[in-house]
Amino acid sequence: MIDRATTALLAAALLCACGAPPAQGPDTTAADPPATAMLGDAEVTATLVPTAALGAAIASRYGVERRRGQVLVVVALREGGHAVPARVQGRVRDLRGVSQPLEFREVRAGDAPEYVALVRTTPPDTLRVALEIADVSGRRLALEFHRDIGP
Questions:
Q1: Is 25 helix (H, G, I), strand (E, B) or coil?
Q2: What is the C-alpha separation between 52 and 26, in angstroms, rounded?
Q3: Which residues are CB-contacts of 89 (< 8 A; sequence separation ≥ 6)?
Q4: Which of 18, 38, 118, 132 is most deeply packed, by most CB within 10 A?
Q5: Nearest Cα residue to 141 out of 128, 130, 126
Q6: Smallest Cα–Cα separation from 148: which of 128, 131, 119?
């Protein structure tokens, strides 16, 4: 069962060095807590993590390259302690007003689906994220939040 505390620990683990530190250095200063919302009885969590801050094992798990100026968006849906499938769409807008569509793909850790997308940015920046999440029954949720990305 993955609860809020576990999700927060996952976000912190994403920022831990699980291998050699990236050559360019991380482009964040602290882990932000995940954005959360309820979709019926399910909890939706969304996290943004600069890929330069990921350890090698975590980057490999998500199939991303660690590099400065690239942020990983991770969305998960949990109901009754179990991960459930969803459809995730979204956009991100930076401080300059430049908008990028988010192209999510499913990544599985065991039987738990997570949905990931990459965003290009030039730190420091503030990213405004607008997500639309739908569960298998068709219930929908709009989740909007912002995160600062440090130099």
A1: coil
A2: 5
A3: 102, 104, 131, 132
A4: 118
A5: 130
A6: 128
Q: Are 70 and 52 in contact (CB under 8 A)?
A: yes
Domain ranges of the chain: 4-14+25-149
Q: What is the pLDDT of residues 89-142, one digit of tens each?
A: 999 999 999 999 999 999 997 788 999 999 999 999 999 999 999 999 999 999
Residue whose token pair is 């505390």: 5
- What would the two tokens of residue 135 be? 């569960």
How many residues are present in the chain?
Answer: 151
Give ∠ CA 8-14-16 in degrees, rounded to 5.
Answer: 105
d(Cα 151, Cα 30) in Å, to the nearest integer?
11
CATH fold of the domain at 4-14+25-149: Immunoglobulin-like (2.60.40)
Q: What's the whole-model pTM score?
A: 0.79
